[in-house]
Fold each of these.
Amino acid sequence: MDITRIAVPTPLDIESVNCFLVDDDGVTLIDGVMASDAAATSFYRRLEAEGYLASDIDRILITHPHIDHFGLAGEIKEESGASVYAHPDATGWLRDLNLYYDRKREHLFPYLRSLGVPTNVARSMVHTPTGAYSDMWGPVETDVEITGGDVVDVGTELAVVETPGHCPASVSFVDTAGRRAFVGDTIVDGFVPTPLIMLKPGTETRTRSLPTWVRSLEDMRAFDLDIAYGGHFDPVTDVPGRIDGMIEQFQDGADRAAETLQTTGPLTAYQLHTEIYESHAARDRLAFLSVTVGHLDLLETRDRVTKRRINDEWLYDVASATHR
Ligand SMILES: [Zn+2]
C-alpha cells in the first residue's frame, strides 16, 4: 500500500487539509478536500505531479462529512466514476448539506437559548454559511455505506472503526496488520479540532461530543498504531502519546471549568464560556461555547457538575457546591 499525503490550502481558520492517495489494488482517495478554487487547483496539480489523473481514482473513502474533507469529492467522482464510501449518518449531509443547516436552524436555536445564549447571538450561530462557504463543497452521492466492523478492501484490508466525537458520523480506516490508520480529525497532531455542538444525524438531539470523542480515542488506542494519518498537519507517529495528550487536554479543560464554577457559583454555559475565554470567545462564539459545553459534558458524565433548569436556562454548578 503506497500512501501519498496531499495537503491543500483552505480559507478556514486551519491553513491546510489533507487527503491521502492510496495506490494498491487500484487507486483509493481518502477524503475529498475542499471545492474552493485554490484547493481544487492545488489538488489536481499535485495529483498530476504524482503521476495520476483524477480519472484513475477507483474509490473515495470519506472519514467525516465536514466541508474541508469532502467538498471536492462529488466533482472527483464525476470525473472518475469512483465509488464513494461513507457512514450512513454522513450520507444525508454529503448529498445536501443545506438540509443539515435547515435542521440546525430549527432545532439548535432553542438549545443554544437554553445555554443562556442571547437571542441575537444564538441567531448568528445557527445561520447558514453562505457566500464564501457555498463554493467550498458540492453534493456527493454515497455508493457504499460502511459501519463499524466492515472491511474495505483497497488491496490492503482496511477495517472500518466508528470514531464519533469531532463529528458524529466520523469513521477511521485501520490497516490492523500494518498498524496504521486513516483517522480524519479524530487524532490530529499540533492542535485539537473543536468538538462542535452538532445535531445527531436524523434526530433533533445534540451530540455529546467530548465524552464520545474520549471513548473513540480509547478505542483507537487498542490498535497499538505506529502511525495515524490525520486530516490536518503531519501524520502522528507517537499515536499512544498523542491520544493521551488529547485526552489530557480535554481533562484539563474540564478541570478548569470546574474550578471556575467553584469560584463563581452557578453559571449558564454561555456565562461560563465568557468567564473562561473572555474576549477570545468573540472570535468564534460557537466554537468556544462548544468547547465549554464539551467540558461540562465530561464533568457531567463524571458526576462533577450538576445542572438545573431555571426560566428555560440550564444553570451548571459543581456537584459539591456546599464546599464553596
Ligand atoms: Zn478538518
Amino acid sequence: MDYDVIVAGGGLAGMIAAQSVSYYSNERLSILIIDRNQQLSLGKKTINGWVCGDAVSKAAVDFMKERIKVEWNKPEIEHHVKGVIAFSPDKETSIKFDGAGYMLNRKQLPQTQYAHSIKHGIDFNFGINLVDLIYDSQNVIGVRGYDIKSKSVYKKTAKVIVDATGVTSLLRNNIKNTDKMEKKINKSDIESTGRHIMYFDNDGEKNLREFDSEHCLIHLDQDIAPGGYAWVFPKGDNKVNIGVGVEKSFLEMRNRRLHKHDNLASLINQYVKRNKSIKNPRLSESLNDRSNATGTWQVSVRRQNDCMVSNGFIIVGDAAWMPKPLDAGGIGPAIIAGTLIGKNIVEAIESKDTTENGLWKYNTDFIKEYGYKTAGLEIFRRLLQTLTNDQISYGMKNFLGSSDIEAISSGKHPDFTVLQKINVIIKGVLNKQLINGLKFTAKQNKWLTNHYDNYPKTPNEFYEWNKQLHQKLDEAYMTISK
Ligand SMILES: Cc1cc2nc3c(=O)[nH]c(=O)nc-3n(C[C@H](O)[C@H](O)[C@H](O)COP(=O)(O)OP(=O)(O)OC[C@H]3O[C@@H](n4cnc5c(N)ncnc54)[C@H](O)[C@@H]3O)c2cc1C
C-alpha cells in the first residue's frame, strides 16, 4: 500500500477527515489528500467557485475544536452572527434557529486547512481527476484517475479510501463492492442553488427583515424560491451572501401558475433587486472573493446515505448526502462526520479490520450525533414543498408551539403538540389539509427517529432495518404527494 489512508477530495469535509485521522493516530498513520484542483484552488466546487451560503453554526465548529483540536479563526471566519431567522411568506412570523454562528470565506478556508494539514504531516497530490476505485476481490484498495495536465494515468493504494469528492461523486456512483450503500438519489432530492457575494451602500431602507448584519435571514416563499428558500446572509455591514435554492419541478409548476419563464439565475437577480435594504449592490471584487463572487451549484436535501461504509471505503460530507434536508446546511454535518471519522478509521486500521464490519461504527456514531433526525426532516421538507404561501404563513402563525420552536431551533422535527390538542373548528379545506399533513409528518418523524435509534450494530442486520425504513419512506412519499 502507498498510504494508510487516502482522502479523495480536499474540500471542507475531506480535509477535516484527514486532520481527524492524523489526530486520533497521533500522526502515526500516513495520509494522502488528492484533489483535482491545484493548491490555491483547493475546495473549489466548480469553475464558478467555492459556491456556498457560507454560514455555519458555532456549535459545529466547537465540536471539531474540542475533539480534534482544529480551530478556525480570521480570515476564514469573515463575520459573526447571532443566529438564523426564517420568515413566513407574509413576513408576519419568524423563527430563530441554530444559535450563534459564523460566515466563512470558503475560498480562504481550504488554505487554512491546507496549512494545518501540512503541519501535521499530511501529503497532497494536486491536479488529479479521480474517476474510479481499485479493487482486490471485494475490497477497495485504491483510487484511479488521471493527471489533468499531463493526462497520464494516476493510481494510488491505501488501506482505507475516504470519499469526500462532493455531491456528484463518481467513486460512490460506481461503487462495486456493496449493495448496502446507495449510489444515486432522486432528482427531486436535489436543489439547484446559487448566490452572489456582494457589496452594497448601507444607507438603503432599514428593515431587519431584509438585511440584518447580526442574523442570517431566510425567506420562505413559493413564488421567490419554489420548493426551497431564499437567503440574505450578512458578511459585514455592507457585504452580503444573497441567494436562492429551488427544486426544479416546483419551479416549473410556479412558472406555469404565474405564467412566467424564470430560471434560477433570473430568480436570484429579482430577489436582489426587490431588496430595498441592499442599495446599489455590486459583485465583490475583493481579492478574497476573486473567482467566487457569483455561481450556482447543487445540494442534496435528504437523509444521509443509508450505509456509508464498504470494505476499505467510507464516505463523508456531500458525497454522503449529508446536508440538512430543511435548509441544505451541509457544513455542520460535514464537520461532525469529518471529526468522528478519524476515530473510526484509526480503530479499524489498528485492529487490522478495514472491512465493512471494521468501519461500521462510523454509521452508528454519525447517526447518534446527527443522522438520527434527517429522515424525519426529509419527510417534513417534502411536505413543506407542497404547501402554498398562505398555508405556510398560516401554519407558522398558528401551529407552532414553544416546544416546536425549540425543536426547530436545534435542527429537529417539531412535534406540533398544539395540533394534537386542537379542538376548534378549522375553516377551509387547505388548512385541514395542512393540519393533517403536519400531524402526519410529526407521526412519521417519531417512528423514523426511533428506527434510527435502532440502526443495526452490525452489517448483517442492515437488510431488514433498511427494508423497514424504505417501506415507511415510500408510504410517506405517497401520502404527501396525494
Ligand atoms: C449555493 C449553495 C449554498 C450553500 N449554503 C450553505 C450554507 O450556508 N451553510 C451550509 O452549512 N452549507 C451550505 N451549502 C452546502 C455546503 O456548501 C456543502 O455541504 C459543503 O461544501 C460540503 O463540503 P464537501 O467537502 O463535502 O464537498 P465539496 O465542498 O463539494 O468539496 C469536494 C472537493 O472534492 C474535489 N473533487 C470533486 N470531484 C473530484 C474528483 N473527481 N477528483 C478529485 N477531486 C475531486 C473538489 O475539487 C473539492 O475540493 C450550500 C451549498 C450550495 C451549493
